[in-house]
Amino acid sequence: MATITDLPSELLIDTFAYLDRLDLKAVRGVCRRFAEISTPSIFQRVLVAPRYQALGAFQTIFQHAVYHKYVKEIVYDGSVYDAGLATNEQVYMAHLSRAECDAYRLDSWGRRKRFKQYQQLYHDQEGIQDSLILFRTLERGLESLPNVTTITYSPGPRNVPIEKKEAKDILPRGEPHSTPSFGGSEGIVQQCSHRGFHYLIGALALVKYSGIRTFRVEAADRPSEPQGTIFTSYAFELPDQAQLQAGLHLFSTLHNLDLPLSLAILGTSSSIPSHLTALRGLLRGAKELRTLSLHLHKWHPSPQSWAPNTSAVSLVLGKTTTWPHLRFLSLGGVHASAQELVDLALRHASTLREVRYSRCSLIEGKWSDVVDSILRTTHIDSFEISKVHEAVVGSRIFAHLSEAEMREFTYSGQLQVGAGGERYYVPSPGHRSVY
């Protein structure tokens, strides 16, 4: 009787690709053949973070005579130990009391021990960054990793195996156990949170690493787990020309960009924040993009709020930015005018094949205008809107409607092509037409 060990290597490689890291390690112990086939999958992704044990594991891989060739993706764990918790025992204990986890229900001595442990890990984290250990380790690692094509920002918290026991009964890094107002404005704290990400793009530029084709941010959408440190637009607060050029170096080689982004806009100033100006410049320089996914979170302006005449499309993407090779476009959580969305599609009409708009709000115009233009003036093969609406319904602001009224004026649907090639819009089941 044939067994799995009799399968061709190509099928085993495809099969092992569905396994997580723990299962792959178990597979390696079955036999020499399984070990040889599964090892490349185990080391395709490596974790980097400003923590000694994580950096030690990273260094072990990039210095290995064989494993370094298998690495195709660097996952940067952006979750950070919080200054407000590490420097104020009373605040730490208050967060510990609110945490819904049996591991935190310790006696007073155990709780204080956990605070001291958290405090030490915070100081290690800051020392690793201040002394440029993180930057230099990334530099040496990139020089030894010839096949990396993907950079992933993870809000975390992620731990290498050796860290799991140490971290299991202290407060997790990042939200919700953080104090964003500590030490000044939220903007300053967010900039500090993303300092390690700046070191990563700086190291890529320093070693002239030109093989990165995909940059993606993992969305923090795990309600039952810690959210980590969410990726915000403050990650693009690049304080000097050298860092801006490092960012341009990364974006100039990208083919795929997946950017769930918390758009940070503070105050009532009508001027565009510098971090958004920098982001727009980086996107303008990403001329090799094939796929672009931009989904904004935690920004819900009404027409009377910040910069009422500025939409998210012009704010982040710019009004005339064009990507000559763009084939896939997905926008989510975006406030824009109907004309801006139409113009964006028309500028890429010769290359675009798939467009998705989800949870978007029109501050001017109607969704019927967008749908008509896509269907009649482009050759896009796949077009879909999902849970979109207009910011103003009649004379009322959408956000002020009841839940039942919101559902009534929320649209979902997709393009369909008939047997004769005719193109038409079909609402999703349970949704009204945009017309």
Given as residue ranges, the uncertain stretches (5+ residues, pLDDT < 50) are 179-189, 300-309
Taken from the alpha-carbon principal axes, the silhouette is: globular
CATH topology of the domain at 1-42: Monooxygenase
Number of strands: 15
CA gyration radius, whole angstroms: 24 Å
Classified by CATH, the class of the domain at 1-42 is Mainly Alpha
Give the proportion of residues in helices. Answer: 25-40%
User: How far from one another are the termini?
Assistant: 62 Å
Individual helix count: 17
The biggest sheet amounts to:
13 strands, mixed
Domain F-box: 1-46
Protein name: F-box domain-containing protein
Pfam families: F-box-like
InterPro entries: F-box-like_dom_sf (IPR036047), F-box_dom (IPR001810)
